[in-house]
Amino acid sequence: xxxxxxxxxxxxxxxxxxxxxxxxxxxxxxxxxxxxxxxxxxxxxxxxxxxxxxxxxxxxxxxxxxxxxxxxxxxxxxxxxxxxxxxxxxxxxxxxxxxxxxxxxxxxxxxxxxxxxxxxxxxxxxxxxxxxxxxxxxxxxxxxxxxxxxxxxxxxxxxxxxxxxxxxxxxxxxxxxxxxxxxxxxxxxxxxxxxxxxxxxxxxxxxxxxxxxxxxxxxxxxxxxxxxxxxxxxxxxxxxxxxxxxxxxxxxxxxxxxxxxxxxxxxxxxxxxxxxxxxxxxxxxxxxxxxxxxxxxxxxxxxxxxxxxxxxxxxxxxxxxxxxxx
Length: 326
What we know:
The protein is mainly β. It is built from three helices and 22 strands. It has two domains: 24-163, no CATH class; 186-323, Lipocalin (Beta Barrel), CATH 2.40.128.
């Protein structure tokens, strides 16, 4: 009997200590962007308590952050996916915010009821319960950049491993993105204007190919702005910066930024056309580039797709340029 008890006890101990329990890792997301590691995902889920650190505004009576945090339907913002120029923001509808003992006045535990995006309106509460608004879970996948803002200083998230299917899907997605990026990169070039009739579809001769970035300078611009008369500016110097992701047009007291959607050759203008998007991601403007052998200079046109804005830069030179590595 004693022998049987000893064997049973030993098997029980071996079973207990042989088991491995996986404790989810906690990550703290702050106002400084962090990238989700390869093979991982960060999660926030309704009904699961998390810790946050709020800003001064949450504790300041009369501030919007304070009003949202103390309203009938408590809320705090924001958790962001992307970068500071282009991101997708989320807010938390919450319950039971409690200060964490022995920390500070800014650290709270709270339980999310729902997560909402920019389409949310407080009027949604007229027809829906808080738990019926928005989504039940926020998932940030490997490679995505995450940061907080507005009324939040930091928030805790749970880090878990991606499933085998998610890893396979991510690998496929990355492969497609590489192909797309490679195809897009080949269109980052500046053709030479033939300055004579050529048949449509004729492949242009290139002045510059596989551009990584280029910075143009121009001392003169002829422009036409919507609802205004056209003008001629030879007082200000303009800097025009083009990368594979962004176009920046700037002069004294003015700067405009656009993201680059893609590029193609314009058979009619004999120029390379770069499609540009505003901060909302909408295609709003075009940048056309070519080189003229007769004038020995670059030609740069910037215009809105509705043709109400138009800038024709003159005496254009290249200040700096770098090509892609093949």
